[in-house]
């Protein structure tokens, strides 16, 4: 339910918190500045102090923010968004490097991917967006998010190592999200490679690949030697065709934050995957409890772009604060609207935190009685 701290209520009325506390005291309530009062009490206090009260609900604030109405009529094919998942060191980043002719692995600390990278690759005139997720157990949470923003999961399994705990986790995430899996049996160049063992082990998690009579596409690849990468891309595009992926590029943009951090020189930077519409430099957007006037957008090669269409991942500069991975993004009409939404969400966040705090104290009191 709705609740507010005394400090917050005072702030919103531009009154002193002590005056609020005094009023409450007159009504027989002994409370401190960070204590939480319910919405009805807050309303009474506000009215007694001569303010008019307007209760704003989430529905009011969020109205029209995410909409499907604009999609109609303008749907066009969009590139697939593919998340690469799998056990640590099975070659996720290497595979992505090979697909985009780059070398990210060499630049990583200890060869472990610490964050999610997003790239768009063009092969034979067709675009595919890849999201690289960390393979470390500590990042299960982020991987779960990776699966949400994705159309297809590439499950990388090293042929010399087989199905491992994080392979199983990735399968569970993909299944939970209802996302089709393509298995990339990697490292087939290795003498110890045993692709058939991988196929058999996958049966335990009810992944039956095509060569075993199932309907999960599998491709044997070597990220190191570049073997069968064209075939892998072909299979991705085939799968994408089946999914009939579409979005309207001619509407206000919506998307999701893939990763975000505070950059010393550039301020808050967020990698945003555009999912609907087209994002433009100069647009005003909200992402979770933060907003931005898009100052610049950079593609995966660090080049500035003016627009980003559906399935395009871009680094967005111009945020007031740092949003969180997984936050949904929506473009709004103007700065005032952005501030209204963000103010509301930040308040919600604070109030949630303080309600949880007082809830904990409540139960402590109960314990003592
Ligand atoms: P995390 O991000 O830590 O989960 O690892 P990753 O899955 O991204 O694996 P990464 O691409 O960093 O590769 C791990 C190691 O396997 C590196 O030393 C790669 O050079 C090696 N490797 C990747 N693909 C192949 C391959 O096809 N063949 C061989 N022989 N080695 C490979
Ligand atoms: Mg990696």
From TrEMBL:
<protein>
    <recommendedName>
        <fullName>Translation initiation factor IF-2</fullName>
    </recommendedName>
</protein>
<comment type="function">
    <text>One of the essential components for the initiation of protein synthesis. Protects formylmethionyl-tRNA from spontaneous hydrolysis and promotes its binding to the 30S ribosomal subunits. Also involved in the hydrolysis of GTP during the formation of the 70S ribosomal complex.</text>
</comment>
<feature type="region of interest" description="G-domain">
    <location>
        <begin position="80"/>
        <end position="228"/>
    </location>
</feature>
<comment type="similarity">
    <text>Belongs to the TRAFAC class translation factor GTPase superfamily. Classic translation factor GTPase family. IF-2 subfamily.</text>
</comment>
<feature type="binding site">
    <location>
        <begin position="86"/>
        <end position="93"/>
    </location>
    <ligand>
        <name>GTP</name>
    </ligand>
</feature>
<feature type="binding site">
    <location>
        <begin position="132"/>
        <end position="136"/>
    </location>
    <ligand>
        <name>GTP</name>
    </ligand>
</feature>
<feature type="domain" description="Tr-type G">
    <location>
        <begin position="77"/>
        <end position="244"/>
    </location>
</feature>
<feature type="binding site">
    <location>
        <begin position="186"/>
        <end position="189"/>
    </location>
    <ligand>
        <name>GTP</name>
    </ligand>
</feature>
